[in-house]
Amino acid sequence: MGIGRRHRASPAAPLVLLALLLAATGCESTPDARPAPGAAAPKSAARVCAAPAAGPATAPAGAVTVDPAVTGDLAVKTRNSPPRTTFWLRPGTHTLPADRFAQVVPKEGNSYLGAPGAVLDGRRTNQYAFGGAAPDVTIRHLTVQGFVAPHDEGVVNHDSADGWVVEHATIQHNSGAGLMAGARQRVRANCLRANGQYGMNAYKAGGTITGLVVEGNEITGNNTDDWERRRPGCGCTGGVKFWAVDGADIRGNWVHDNRGAGLWADTNNNDFRIEGNVLESNDGAALIYETSYNAVIRANTIRRNNWVEGRRYADRGDTFPFGTVYVSESGGEPRIRARTDRIEIHRNVLENNWSGITLWENADRFCNSPANTSSGHCTLLVKDTARCAQPAIAGPPLYDDCRWKTQRVDVHGNRFVLDKSVVHCTVKCDRMAVLANYGTYPDWSPYQGERVAEAITREQDNRFFDNDYVGPWTFVAHDPSRMLDPGQWQGTPYQQDAGSTFRARDGG
Protein backbone atom coordinates (compact mmCIF):
# COMPACT_ATOMS: atom_id res chain seq x y z
CA MET A 1 0.00 0.00 0.00
CA GLY A 2 1.14 3.50 -0.67
CA ILE A 3 1.14 6.11 2.03
CA GLY A 4 0.13 9.76 1.83
CA ARG A 5 1.32 11.01 5.16
CA ARG A 6 2.51 14.42 4.03
CA HIS A 7 1.11 17.11 1.77
CA ARG A 8 2.37 15.53 -1.43
CA ALA A 9 1.03 18.28 -3.67
CA SER A 10 3.02 21.71 -2.73
CA PRO A 11 -17.26 -3.81 23.21
CA ALA A 12 -14.44 -4.82 25.19
CA ALA A 13 -13.04 -4.89 28.74
CA PRO A 14 -13.68 -1.92 31.02
CA LEU A 15 -11.88 1.22 29.98
CA VAL A 16 -8.56 2.02 31.51
CA LEU A 17 -8.62 5.80 31.51
CA LEU A 18 -5.76 7.86 32.76
CA ALA A 19 -6.55 10.72 35.10
CA LEU A 20 -3.46 12.73 34.29
CA LEU A 21 -3.77 16.49 34.00
CA LEU A 22 -0.27 17.80 33.79
CA ALA A 23 0.82 21.12 35.22
CA ALA A 24 2.50 23.38 32.69
CA THR A 25 6.28 23.63 32.92
CA GLY A 26 6.19 27.16 33.28
CA CYS A 27 11.35 27.59 15.46
CA GLU A 28 14.83 28.03 15.05
CA SER A 29 16.20 24.88 16.54
CA THR A 30 19.12 22.94 17.86
CA PRO A 31 19.70 19.59 16.12
CA ASP A 32 20.30 17.58 19.28
CA ALA A 33 17.18 18.66 21.13
CA ARG A 34 15.54 15.24 21.24
CA PRO A 35 14.23 14.08 24.63
CA ALA A 36 16.47 11.52 26.25
CA PRO A 37 15.23 7.93 25.82
CA GLY A 38 14.66 5.59 28.69
CA ALA A 39 12.89 8.00 31.00
CA ALA A 40 10.84 6.59 33.84
CA ALA A 41 7.34 5.47 32.96
CA PRO A 42 4.50 7.81 33.88
CA LYS A 43 2.66 6.60 36.94
CA SER A 44 -0.30 5.15 35.02
CA ALA A 45 1.60 3.83 31.97
CA ALA A 46 2.11 0.19 31.10
CA ARG A 47 5.48 -0.69 32.67
CA VAL A 48 6.10 -3.99 30.94
CA CYS A 49 9.59 -4.20 29.45
CA ALA A 50 11.53 -3.63 32.67
CA ALA A 51 9.58 -6.19 34.68
CA PRO A 52 7.55 -8.59 32.51
CA ALA A 53 5.15 -10.90 34.30
CA ALA A 54 6.69 -14.32 34.89
CA GLY A 55 5.21 -17.44 33.35
CA PRO A 56 4.48 -20.72 35.15
CA ALA A 57 7.55 -22.26 36.79
CA THR A 58 6.21 -25.77 36.28
CA ALA A 59 4.31 -27.38 33.45
CA PRO A 60 0.52 -27.07 33.72
CA ALA A 61 -1.38 -30.34 33.94
CA GLY A 62 -1.58 -32.01 30.54
CA ALA A 63 0.93 -29.69 28.87
CA VAL A 64 3.61 -30.93 26.48
CA THR A 65 7.05 -29.94 27.77
CA VAL A 66 9.47 -28.43 25.25
CA ASP A 67 13.22 -28.89 25.74
CA PRO A 68 15.54 -26.00 24.78
CA ALA A 69 18.45 -28.42 24.39
CA VAL A 70 16.77 -30.02 21.37
CA THR A 71 16.91 -27.83 18.26
CA GLY A 72 13.46 -27.56 16.70
CA ASP A 73 11.73 -29.38 19.55
CA LEU A 74 8.88 -26.85 19.63
CA ALA A 75 8.13 -27.15 15.91
CA VAL A 76 8.31 -30.96 15.93
CA LYS A 77 6.09 -31.38 18.99
CA THR A 78 3.59 -28.90 17.55
CA ARG A 79 3.45 -30.92 14.33
CA ASN A 80 3.01 -34.22 16.19
CA SER A 81 0.36 -33.04 18.67
CA PRO A 82 -3.38 -32.56 18.14
CA PRO A 83 -5.16 -29.21 18.04
CA ARG A 84 -5.81 -27.41 21.34
CA THR A 85 -2.60 -28.73 22.90
CA THR A 86 -0.83 -26.65 25.53
CA PHE A 87 2.96 -26.43 25.27
CA TRP A 88 5.19 -25.37 28.14
CA LEU A 89 8.64 -24.12 27.16
CA ARG A 90 11.31 -24.83 29.77
CA PRO A 91 13.67 -22.06 30.88
CA GLY A 92 16.45 -21.48 28.36
CA THR A 93 16.94 -20.51 24.73
CA HIS A 94 14.84 -22.48 22.27
CA THR A 95 15.84 -22.57 18.61
CA LEU A 96 14.57 -23.76 15.25
CA PRO A 97 16.47 -25.58 12.48
CA ALA A 98 18.91 -23.41 10.53
CA ASP A 99 16.55 -22.82 7.62
CA ARG A 100 15.18 -19.34 7.03
CA PHE A 101 11.65 -20.72 6.52
CA ALA A 102 11.72 -23.00 9.59
CA GLN A 103 8.94 -21.89 11.96
CA VAL A 104 6.30 -23.11 14.37
CA VAL A 105 2.96 -23.75 12.63
CA PRO A 106 0.32 -23.99 15.38
CA LYS A 107 -2.92 -25.94 15.15
CA GLU A 108 -6.29 -24.51 16.09
CA GLY A 109 -6.56 -23.60 19.75
CA ASN A 110 -2.93 -24.33 20.66
CA SER A 111 -1.40 -22.53 23.63
CA TYR A 112 2.29 -21.74 24.15
CA LEU A 113 3.43 -20.84 27.67
CA GLY A 114 6.93 -19.78 28.54
CA ALA A 115 8.53 -20.61 31.85
CA PRO A 116 10.56 -17.84 33.49
CA GLY A 117 13.56 -17.30 31.22
CA ALA A 118 12.10 -19.09 28.18
CA VAL A 119 13.28 -17.50 24.93
CA LEU A 120 12.57 -18.47 21.32
CA ASP A 121 15.54 -17.14 19.35
CA GLY A 122 15.72 -16.96 15.56
CA ARG A 123 19.51 -16.45 15.71
CA ARG A 124 19.23 -13.94 12.82
CA THR A 125 18.59 -16.97 10.62
CA ASN A 126 14.88 -17.83 10.76
CA GLN A 127 12.41 -15.37 9.28
CA TYR A 128 9.30 -16.31 11.23
CA ALA A 129 8.57 -17.64 14.71
CA PHE A 130 4.85 -18.53 14.51
CA GLY A 131 2.89 -18.70 11.22
CA GLY A 132 0.06 -20.49 9.49
CA ALA A 133 -3.70 -19.98 9.32
CA ALA A 134 -4.83 -21.76 12.50
CA PRO A 135 -7.22 -19.62 14.57
CA ASP A 136 -7.47 -19.05 18.32
CA VAL A 137 -3.82 -19.59 19.21
CA THR A 138 -2.49 -18.26 22.53
CA ILE A 139 1.08 -17.17 23.31
CA ARG A 140 1.94 -16.11 26.84
CA HIS A 141 5.05 -15.34 28.89
CA LEU A 142 7.50 -16.01 26.05
CA THR A 143 10.35 -13.90 24.71
CA VAL A 144 10.63 -13.99 20.92
CA GLN A 145 13.74 -12.41 19.46
CA GLY A 146 16.36 -12.50 16.74
CA PHE A 147 14.09 -13.30 13.76
CA VAL A 148 14.61 -11.64 10.39
CA ALA A 149 11.21 -11.12 8.77
CA PRO A 150 11.31 -9.22 5.47
CA HIS A 151 10.05 -5.66 5.12
CA ASP A 152 6.29 -5.37 5.85
CA GLU A 153 6.16 -8.96 7.18
CA GLY A 154 5.99 -10.11 10.77
CA VAL A 155 7.51 -12.64 13.14
CA VAL A 156 4.60 -13.70 15.39
CA ASN A 157 1.31 -14.57 13.67
CA HIS A 158 3.07 -14.06 10.36
CA ASP A 159 -0.03 -15.00 8.33
CA SER A 160 -2.47 -12.79 10.28
CA ALA A 161 -4.63 -15.68 11.50
CA ASP A 162 -7.75 -14.81 13.46
CA GLY A 163 -8.51 -14.98 17.14
CA TRP A 164 -4.95 -15.04 18.49
CA VAL A 165 -4.21 -13.94 22.05
CA VAL A 166 -0.72 -12.62 22.77
CA GLU A 167 -0.18 -11.70 26.41
CA HIS A 168 2.76 -11.01 28.72
CA ALA A 169 5.20 -11.69 25.89
CA THR A 170 8.38 -9.85 25.00
CA ILE A 171 8.84 -9.53 21.25
CA GLN A 172 12.09 -7.74 20.58
CA HIS A 173 15.12 -7.27 18.33
CA ASN A 174 13.52 -8.74 15.24
CA SER A 175 13.54 -7.44 11.66
CA GLY A 176 10.24 -6.45 10.06
CA ALA A 177 7.29 -6.32 12.45
CA GLY A 178 7.43 -8.09 15.77
CA LEU A 179 3.77 -9.04 15.50
CA MET A 180 1.08 -9.19 12.81
CA ALA A 181 -2.66 -9.10 13.56
CA GLY A 182 -5.82 -10.92 12.56
CA ALA A 183 -9.48 -10.47 13.37
CA ARG A 184 -10.49 -10.67 17.04
CA GLN A 185 -6.86 -10.55 18.11
CA ARG A 186 -6.06 -9.60 21.71
CA VAL A 187 -2.67 -8.05 22.38
CA ARG A 188 -2.28 -7.38 26.09
CA ALA A 189 0.51 -6.51 28.52
CA ASN A 190 3.35 -7.21 26.09
CA CYS A 191 6.72 -5.58 25.54
CA LEU A 192 7.05 -4.81 21.83
CA ARG A 193 10.56 -3.43 21.72
CA ALA A 194 13.32 -2.52 19.26
CA ASN A 195 11.97 -4.30 16.21
CA GLY A 196 13.33 -3.34 12.82
CA GLN A 197 10.16 -1.88 11.35
CA TYR A 198 7.05 -2.00 13.59
CA GLY A 199 6.19 -3.29 17.01
CA MET A 200 2.98 -4.54 15.37
CA ASN A 201 1.70 -4.38 11.79
CA ALA A 202 -2.09 -4.80 11.85
CA TYR A 203 -2.47 -5.84 8.24
CA LYS A 204 -4.31 -8.80 6.73
CA ALA A 205 -3.72 -9.48 3.05
CA GLY A 206 -7.00 -9.54 1.16
CA GLY A 207 -9.16 -8.96 4.21
CA THR A 208 -10.33 -6.64 6.96
CA ILE A 209 -9.31 -7.00 10.59
CA THR A 210 -12.26 -6.68 12.98
CA GLY A 211 -12.49 -6.57 16.77
CA LEU A 212 -8.84 -5.79 17.54
CA VAL A 213 -7.81 -5.03 21.14
CA VAL A 214 -4.39 -3.59 21.99
CA GLU A 215 -4.26 -2.98 25.73
CA GLY A 216 -1.67 -2.32 28.39
CA ASN A 217 1.42 -2.86 26.22
CA GLU A 218 4.73 -1.07 26.24
CA ILE A 219 5.66 -0.28 22.64
CA THR A 220 9.09 1.27 22.42
CA GLY A 221 12.17 1.79 20.30
CA ASN A 222 10.77 0.29 17.11
CA ASN A 223 11.91 0.99 13.55
CA THR A 224 15.55 0.37 14.38
CA ASP A 225 16.20 -0.12 10.65
CA ASP A 226 15.01 3.44 9.94
CA TRP A 227 12.87 2.56 6.93
CA GLU A 228 11.85 6.12 6.11
CA ARG A 229 15.48 6.92 5.40
CA ARG A 230 15.98 3.75 3.40
CA ARG A 231 12.77 4.31 1.41
CA PRO A 232 11.87 7.99 1.66
CA GLY A 233 8.13 8.58 1.76
CA CYS A 234 7.27 4.91 2.25
CA GLY A 235 5.08 5.64 5.29
CA CYS A 236 6.18 2.27 6.66
CA THR A 237 7.50 2.93 10.15
CA GLY A 238 6.58 3.42 13.77
CA GLY A 239 5.31 1.75 16.89
CA VAL A 240 2.08 0.25 15.47
CA LYS A 241 0.56 0.54 11.96
CA PHE A 242 -3.10 -0.26 11.26
CA TRP A 243 -4.50 -1.02 7.80
CA ALA A 244 -8.21 -1.59 7.02
CA VAL A 245 -9.07 -2.37 10.65
CA ASP A 246 -12.80 -2.14 11.35
CA GLY A 247 -13.26 -1.86 15.10
CA ALA A 248 -10.25 -1.39 17.37
CA ASP A 249 -9.78 -0.55 21.05
CA ILE A 250 -6.32 0.86 21.75
CA ARG A 251 -6.10 1.65 25.45
CA GLY A 252 -3.74 1.91 28.37
CA ASN A 253 -0.54 1.51 26.33
CA TRP A 254 2.79 3.26 26.82
CA VAL A 255 4.00 4.11 23.32
CA HIS A 256 7.33 5.85 23.50
CA ASP A 257 10.70 6.50 21.88
CA ASN A 258 9.78 4.95 18.54
CA ARG A 259 11.55 6.13 15.41
CA GLY A 260 8.67 7.56 13.38
CA ALA A 261 5.07 7.81 14.53
CA GLY A 262 3.81 6.19 17.70
CA LEU A 263 0.41 4.96 16.41
CA TRP A 264 -0.54 5.22 12.73
CA ALA A 265 -3.92 4.21 11.26
CA ASP A 266 -3.62 4.33 7.48
CA THR A 267 -6.13 3.55 4.70
CA ASN A 268 -9.78 2.70 5.38
CA ASN A 269 -9.67 2.07 9.09
CA ASN A 270 -12.93 2.64 10.95
CA ASP A 271 -14.41 2.67 14.44
CA PHE A 272 -11.32 3.23 16.59
CA ARG A 273 -11.26 4.06 20.28
CA ILE A 274 -7.85 5.32 21.29
CA GLU A 275 -7.99 6.12 24.98
CA GLY A 276 -6.01 6.23 28.18
CA ASN A 277 -2.64 5.84 26.45
CA VAL A 278 0.62 7.63 27.18
CA LEU A 279 2.24 8.62 23.89
CA GLU A 280 5.59 10.27 24.39
CA SER A 281 9.01 10.98 22.95
CA ASN A 282 8.28 9.44 19.56
CA ASP A 283 10.41 10.93 16.78
CA GLY A 284 7.34 11.66 14.65
CA ALA A 285 3.69 12.29 15.40
CA ALA A 286 2.20 10.63 18.45
CA LEU A 287 -0.84 9.64 16.37
CA ILE A 288 -1.68 9.75 12.66
CA TYR A 289 -5.23 8.96 11.53
CA GLU A 290 -5.11 8.88 7.73
CA THR A 291 -7.70 8.18 5.00
CA SER A 292 -9.90 6.58 7.66
CA TYR A 293 -13.22 7.04 9.43
CA ASN A 294 -15.06 7.42 12.76
CA ALA A 295 -12.86 7.48 15.86
CA VAL A 296 -12.84 8.54 19.50
CA ILE A 297 -9.46 9.79 20.75
CA ARG A 298 -9.81 10.64 24.41
CA ALA A 299 -8.06 10.84 27.79
CA ASN A 300 -4.58 10.31 26.36
CA THR A 301 -1.41 11.93 27.67
CA ILE A 302 0.67 13.09 24.70
CA ARG A 303 4.02 14.74 25.34
CA ARG A 304 7.42 15.46 23.79
CA ASN A 305 6.51 13.92 20.43
CA ASN A 306 7.53 14.99 16.94
CA TRP A 307 10.72 16.74 18.01
CA VAL A 308 12.86 14.96 15.44
CA GLU A 309 10.60 14.93 12.38
CA GLY A 310 8.97 18.28 13.05
CA ARG A 311 12.38 19.90 13.46
CA ARG A 312 13.67 18.20 10.33
CA TYR A 313 10.90 19.71 8.20
CA ALA A 314 11.28 23.12 9.80
CA ASP A 315 15.04 23.20 9.35
CA ARG A 316 14.72 22.57 5.63
CA GLY A 317 12.25 25.44 5.27
CA ASP A 318 9.00 23.48 5.04
CA THR A 319 6.09 25.65 6.20
CA PHE A 320 3.56 22.83 6.60
CA PRO A 321 2.14 22.61 10.16
CA PHE A 322 2.92 18.97 10.79
CA GLY A 323 1.10 18.25 14.07
CA THR A 324 1.74 15.71 16.77
CA VAL A 325 -1.87 14.52 16.30
CA TYR A 326 -2.32 14.47 12.54
CA VAL A 327 -5.75 13.83 11.01
CA SER A 328 -5.18 13.42 7.29
CA GLU A 329 -8.11 12.94 4.88
CA SER A 330 -10.12 11.33 7.69
CA GLY A 331 -13.47 12.15 9.20
CA GLY A 332 -16.78 11.11 10.62
CA GLU A 333 -19.06 9.34 8.18
CA PRO A 334 -22.60 8.34 9.29
CA ARG A 335 -23.00 5.96 6.34
CA ILE A 336 -20.25 3.71 7.67
CA ARG A 337 -21.35 1.72 10.71
CA ALA A 338 -19.39 2.44 13.88
CA ARG A 339 -19.81 3.33 17.54
CA THR A 340 -19.59 7.01 16.56
CA ASP A 341 -20.23 8.95 13.37
CA ARG A 342 -17.58 11.61 14.04
CA ILE A 343 -13.94 11.92 14.93
CA GLU A 344 -13.96 13.17 18.50
CA ILE A 345 -10.68 14.32 20.06
CA HIS A 346 -11.33 15.27 23.65
CA ARG A 347 -10.02 15.26 27.24
CA ASN A 348 -6.44 14.75 26.11
CA VAL A 349 -3.38 16.50 27.54
CA LEU A 350 -0.78 17.55 24.97
CA GLU A 351 2.37 18.93 26.55
CA ASN A 352 5.55 20.21 24.88
CA ASN A 353 5.15 18.48 21.57
CA TRP A 354 6.29 19.92 18.26
CA SER A 355 2.97 21.59 17.38
CA GLY A 356 -0.49 20.35 18.28
CA ILE A 357 -3.39 19.03 16.19
CA THR A 358 -3.49 19.34 12.40
CA LEU A 359 -6.61 18.61 10.35
CA TRP A 360 -5.46 18.26 6.74
CA GLU A 361 -6.92 17.31 3.38
CA ASN A 362 -4.93 16.91 0.17
CA ALA A 363 -7.07 18.26 -2.67
CA ASP A 364 -5.21 16.08 -5.19
CA ARG A 365 -5.68 12.82 -3.31
CA PHE A 366 -8.79 10.91 -4.33
CA CYS A 367 -9.77 7.64 -5.99
CA ASN A 368 -8.00 7.12 -9.33
CA SER A 369 -5.78 10.17 -8.92
CA PRO A 370 -2.07 9.57 -9.56
CA ALA A 371 -1.54 11.62 -6.39
CA ASN A 372 -3.35 8.99 -4.29
CA THR A 373 -0.43 7.40 -2.51
CA SER A 374 -2.73 4.65 -1.21
CA SER A 375 -2.51 3.39 -4.77
CA GLY A 376 -5.23 1.01 -5.93
CA HIS A 377 -7.49 1.87 -3.00
CA CYS A 378 -10.68 3.88 -2.97
CA THR A 379 -12.93 5.15 -0.21
CA LEU A 380 -15.29 2.82 1.62
CA LEU A 381 -18.17 4.59 -0.12
CA VAL A 382 -17.22 3.53 -3.65
CA LYS A 383 -16.93 -0.17 -4.48
CA ASP A 384 -15.94 0.27 -8.13
CA THR A 385 -12.93 2.55 -8.26
CA ALA A 386 -13.28 2.97 -12.03
CA ARG A 387 -16.43 5.04 -11.43
CA CYS A 388 -14.29 7.86 -10.05
CA ALA A 389 -13.54 9.40 -13.44
CA GLN A 390 -14.88 12.14 -15.65
CA PRO A 391 -17.57 13.03 -16.27
CA ALA A 392 -19.35 11.28 -13.35
CA ILE A 393 -16.88 12.39 -10.66
CA ALA A 394 -17.73 16.02 -11.25
CA GLY A 395 -21.28 15.59 -9.91
CA PRO A 396 -23.11 13.94 -7.01
CA PRO A 397 -22.74 11.51 -5.42
CA LEU A 398 -19.22 10.73 -6.68
CA TYR A 399 -17.90 14.27 -6.20
CA ASP A 400 -18.16 13.67 -2.46
CA ASP A 401 -17.78 9.89 -2.28
CA CYS A 402 -14.57 9.55 -4.33
CA ARG A 403 -12.61 11.70 -1.86
CA TRP A 404 -11.50 10.90 1.67
CA LYS A 405 -12.78 13.96 3.52
CA THR A 406 -11.60 15.53 6.75
CA GLN A 407 -15.06 16.28 8.11
CA ARG A 408 -17.14 16.10 11.29
CA VAL A 409 -14.09 16.42 13.55
CA ASP A 410 -14.65 17.76 17.07
CA VAL A 411 -11.61 18.91 19.08
CA HIS A 412 -12.77 19.90 22.55
CA GLY A 413 -11.99 19.74 26.24
CA ASN A 414 -8.26 19.27 25.64
CA ARG A 415 -5.34 20.94 27.37
CA PHE A 416 -2.50 22.17 25.16
CA VAL A 417 0.71 23.22 26.90
CA LEU A 418 3.79 24.57 25.12
CA ASP A 419 7.04 25.83 26.62
CA LYS A 420 9.43 26.56 23.75
CA SER A 421 12.42 26.45 26.06
CA VAL A 422 11.62 22.79 26.71
CA VAL A 423 11.11 21.94 23.03
CA HIS A 424 14.23 23.99 22.12
CA CYS A 425 12.58 25.92 19.32
CA THR A 426 11.57 29.47 18.47
CA VAL A 427 9.33 29.06 15.40
CA LYS A 428 7.21 26.46 13.58
CA CYS A 429 6.64 24.32 16.69
CA ASP A 430 3.58 26.17 18.01
CA ARG A 431 0.79 25.55 15.49
CA MET A 432 -2.74 24.16 15.40
CA ALA A 433 -4.25 23.87 11.94
CA VAL A 434 -7.22 23.19 9.67
CA LEU A 435 -6.12 23.40 6.06
CA ALA A 436 -5.78 22.01 2.55
CA ASN A 437 -3.61 22.68 -0.48
CA TYR A 438 -4.54 24.37 -3.75
CA GLY A 439 -5.81 21.64 -6.05
CA THR A 440 -3.80 21.27 -9.26
CA TYR A 441 -3.55 17.63 -10.28
CA PRO A 442 -4.47 15.72 -12.40
CA ASP A 443 -5.87 17.92 -15.15
CA TRP A 444 -9.26 16.15 -14.99
CA SER A 445 -9.66 16.66 -11.24
CA PRO A 446 -12.92 18.31 -10.15
CA TYR A 447 -11.18 19.53 -6.96
CA GLN A 448 -8.85 22.12 -8.46
CA GLY A 449 -8.27 25.54 -6.94
CA GLU A 450 -9.47 26.42 -3.43
CA ARG A 451 -12.51 24.15 -3.36
CA VAL A 452 -11.14 21.70 -0.82
CA ALA A 453 -9.50 24.42 1.30
CA GLU A 454 -12.84 26.22 1.52
CA ALA A 455 -14.64 22.96 2.33
CA ILE A 456 -12.36 21.77 5.15
CA THR A 457 -12.26 25.21 6.73
CA ARG A 458 -15.90 26.27 6.51
CA GLU A 459 -18.19 23.56 5.16
CA GLN A 460 -17.24 20.17 6.61
CA ASP A 461 -18.21 20.68 10.26
CA ASN A 462 -14.71 20.69 11.78
CA ARG A 463 -14.88 22.35 15.19
CA PHE A 464 -12.45 23.32 17.94
CA PHE A 465 -14.16 24.41 21.16
CA ASP A 466 -13.78 24.53 24.97
CA ASN A 467 -10.04 23.85 24.95
CA ASP A 468 -7.39 25.22 27.33
CA TYR A 469 -4.25 26.67 25.71
CA VAL A 470 -1.16 27.48 27.75
CA GLY A 471 1.77 29.02 25.90
CA PRO A 472 2.42 30.92 22.66
CA TRP A 473 0.09 29.06 20.29
CA THR A 474 -0.58 30.17 16.72
CA PHE A 475 -3.14 28.87 14.24
CA VAL A 476 -3.25 28.03 10.54
CA ALA A 477 -6.50 28.02 8.56
CA HIS A 478 -7.44 27.34 4.94
CA ASP A 479 -3.86 27.01 3.59
CA PRO A 480 -0.29 27.18 4.96
CA SER A 481 0.02 30.91 4.27
CA ARG A 482 -2.74 32.01 6.65
CA MET A 483 -1.19 32.36 10.09
CA LEU A 484 -3.58 33.55 12.78
CA ASP A 485 -3.42 34.70 16.37
CA PRO A 486 -6.07 33.43 18.82
CA GLY A 487 -8.37 36.39 18.18
CA GLN A 488 -8.29 35.88 14.42
CA TRP A 489 -8.82 32.13 14.88
CA GLN A 490 -11.90 32.77 17.02
CA GLY A 491 -13.21 35.58 14.84
CA THR A 492 -14.96 35.72 11.47
CA PRO A 493 -14.76 33.84 9.17
CA TYR A 494 -13.17 30.89 11.01
CA GLN A 495 -15.03 31.09 14.34
CA GLN A 496 -13.02 28.33 16.00
CA ASP A 497 -12.42 27.60 19.69
CA ALA A 498 -15.56 29.12 21.15
CA GLY A 499 -15.40 28.83 24.93
CA SER A 500 -11.64 28.15 24.94
CA THR A 501 -9.07 29.85 27.17
CA PHE A 502 -5.67 31.22 26.13
CA ARG A 503 -2.92 31.98 28.62
CA ALA A 504 0.69 32.93 28.10
CA ARG A 505 1.74 30.81 31.05
CA ASP A 506 -0.02 28.67 33.65
CA GLY A 507 -1.08 30.57 36.72
CA GLY A 508 -1.17 34.02 35.12
From TrEMBL:
Protein name (Swiss-Prot/TrEMBL): Right-handed parallel beta-helix repeat-containing protein
Organism the protein comes from: Streptomyces zhihengii
Domain Carbohydrate-binding/sugar hydrolysis: 160-314
Signal sequence, renumbered to the chain: 1-29
SUPFAM superfamilies in alphabetical order: Pectin lyase-like (SSF51126)
Keywords on record: Repeat, Signal
Pfam families: Beta_helix
Biased composition (Polar residues): 489-499
Gene3D superfamilies in the record: Single-stranded right-handed beta-helix, Pectin lyase-like (2.160.20.10)
